[in-house]
C-alpha cells in the first residue's frame, strides 16, 4: 500500500500532498448548536480542511458510577459528570444538521467516535473518516470494530507507548490499510517539554507505509508549524471562539486569528520545504550576476605559460569567468593568450584540459 491515501473525497494525504488541517471543535461549542455552526464557519473561513466534533453514546462510554460521580468544578455544566456530559452531547438529529451546514459552507465534517455505538452512528452518517481519540487507542476491541468498517482512520497516540502503537498497527493494518498515526500528548494545555516532536520521526521510521501527523494541545502555533517541517501530514488543533469559556479544552485551543495564522504558516512552510535536490535556482541569478566570484589573474600571465595556483586568485569579476570551484583544476593548464594582471581568467584563454 502506498504512503498516500484518500482521507476525504478528492483529498489525498501522505506523500507530497499538502497537510490536512483538522479544526477540532470537540465539545467547545458549549452544548449550543448555533455556536457549533459559528465554529464550523470559522474553521472554513480560517482555511482548515475539516471541522471535527466528539460524539459519545454516554451509557456506552461510561459506566453508571462514572456518570453519577459528583462534578461541581468551575467547568461543570451539571451536578454529576453524567449531567455535565449530557449538556455537551448533541443528538443524532443535531449532528445531521451540523453535517448539512458544513456541506453548505464547504468544509469536511467528522467526529471522534468515543465508543463503538458512536462509531456506528458516524458510519451511518457517512462521515469521510473516523477519528480515534487517544483514550481509545489501546482499546483493541474498539479498534478492531472501527477498522472493519473500512472508512479511513486517523489515530491519536496520547497516553500510549511505542509497544502499544506497534500492537495497534499490527491489528489495524490487515483490516484497513487507510490509516495514520498522530503524535499526541494528552495534557491541556501542553508544555513544550512534553511535546516530543521527535516521535514523528520515530513513527515515520517504524511505520514507513502510513502517513504520520500531529495532534497538538499546546498554546500558540509555533510547535504545530515545526511539526509540519518534521513531516506531519495531518495536523489537528482544538479551536474555540473564546479561551475564557467554561471547559478544560479552551485554554489549549486556538481562537480564529490564531487558526488563520496557523493555516497560513503551514502552507508557507510546505512551499518552503520544496525540493530535496540542491541546485542553483533562477531566482538566484541576479545575485550571482552581481556578486558571483570568478578566477582572476593574480599576476600577468604570458601566452604559453603553464599555470600554477599562485598565479591566480578569486574575486568578484567583470566579466565573469571560470568558477571558483574549478580553480584547483587549473594547475598545469597552458595559457594560449596573454592575460593581464587582475583580469578574469576565461576558458577560451587556456588550452583545453585534455591537451
Which descriptors apply to this entry?
single chain, 355 residues, alpha/beta, TIM Barrel, Type Iii Antifreeze Protein Isoform Hplc 12, 2 domains, 8-stranded parallel β-sheet, two-stranded antiparallel ribbon, 12 helices, elongated
Strand neighbour order, sheet with most strands: 5-4-3-10-9-8-7-6
Estimate the mean pLDDT confidence: 95
The H/E string reads EEEHEHHHHEHEHEHEHEHEHHEE
Q: Specify the CATH homologous superfamily of the largest domain.
A: Aldolase class I
The 3D shape can be described as elongated
How many whole angstroms does the radius of gyration measure? 30 Å
Assembly type of the chains comes to single chain
The tally of helices reads 12
Alpha-carbon distance between the two ends: 55 Å
* Estimated share of beta-strand residues: 15-25%
What is the total number of structural domains?
2
Amino acid at each position: 500500500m502506498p504512503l498516500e491515501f484518500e482521507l476525504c473525497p478528492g483529498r489525498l494525504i501522505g506523500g507530497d500532498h499538502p497537510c490536512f488541517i483538522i479544526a477540532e471543535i470537540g465539545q467547545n461549542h458549549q452544548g449550543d448548536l448555533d455556536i457549533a455552526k459559528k465554529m464550523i464557519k470559522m474553521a472554513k473561513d480560517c482555511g482548515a480542511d475539516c471541522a471535527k466534533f466528539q460524539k459519545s453514546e454516554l451509557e456506552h462510554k461510561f459506566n453508571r458510577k462514572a456518570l453519577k460521580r459528583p462534578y461541581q468544578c468551575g467547568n461543570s455544566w451539571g451536578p454529576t459528570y453524567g449531567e455535565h456530559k449530557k449538556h455537551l452531547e448533541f443528538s443524532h438529529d443535531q449532528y445531521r444538521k451540523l453535517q448539512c451546514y458544513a456541506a453548505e459552507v464547504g468544509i469536511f465534517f467528522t467526529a471522534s467516535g468515543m465508543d463503538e455505538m458512536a462509531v456506528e452512528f458516524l458510519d451511518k452518517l457517512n462521515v469521510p473518516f473516523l477519528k480515534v481519540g487517544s483514550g481509545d487507542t489501546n482499546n483493541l476491541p474498539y479498534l478492531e470494530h472501527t477498522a472493519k468498517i473500512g472508512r479511513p482512520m486517523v489515530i491519536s497516540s496520547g497516553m500510549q507507548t511505542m509497544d502499544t502503537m506497534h500492537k495497534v498497527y499490527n491489528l489495524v493494518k490487515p483490516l484497513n490499510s487507510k490509516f495514520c498515526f498522530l503524535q499526541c500528548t494528552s495534557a491541556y494545555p501542553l508544555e513544550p517539554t512534553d511535546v516530543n516532536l521527535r516521535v514523528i520521526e520515530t513513527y515515520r521510521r517504524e511505520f514507513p507505509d502510513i502517513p504520520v501527523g500531529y495532534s497538538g494541545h499546546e498554546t500558540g502555533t509555533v510547535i504545530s508549524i515545526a511539526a509540519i517541517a518534521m513531516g506531519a501530514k495531518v495536523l489537528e488543533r482544538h479551536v474555540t471562539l473564546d479561551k475564557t469559556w467554561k471547559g478544560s479544552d479552551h485554554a489549549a485551543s486556538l481562537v480564529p486569528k490564531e487558526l488563520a495564522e496557523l493555516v497560513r504558516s503551514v502552507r508557507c512552510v510546505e512551499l518552503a520545504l520544496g525540493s530535496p535536490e540542491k541546485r542553483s535556482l533562477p531566482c538566484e541569478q541576479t545575485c550571482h550576476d552581481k556578486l558571483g566570484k570568478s578566477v582572476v589573474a593574480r599576476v600577468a600571465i604570458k601566452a604559453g605559460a603553464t599555470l600554477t595556483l599562485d598565479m591566480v586568485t578569486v574575486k568578484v569579476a567583470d566579466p565573469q569567468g571560470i568558477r571558483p570551484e574549478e580553480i584547483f583544476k587549473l594547475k598545469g593548464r597552458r595559457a594560449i593568450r596573454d592575460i593581464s594582471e587582475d583580469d578574469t581568467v576565461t576558458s577560451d584563454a587556456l588550452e583545453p584540459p585534455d591537451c
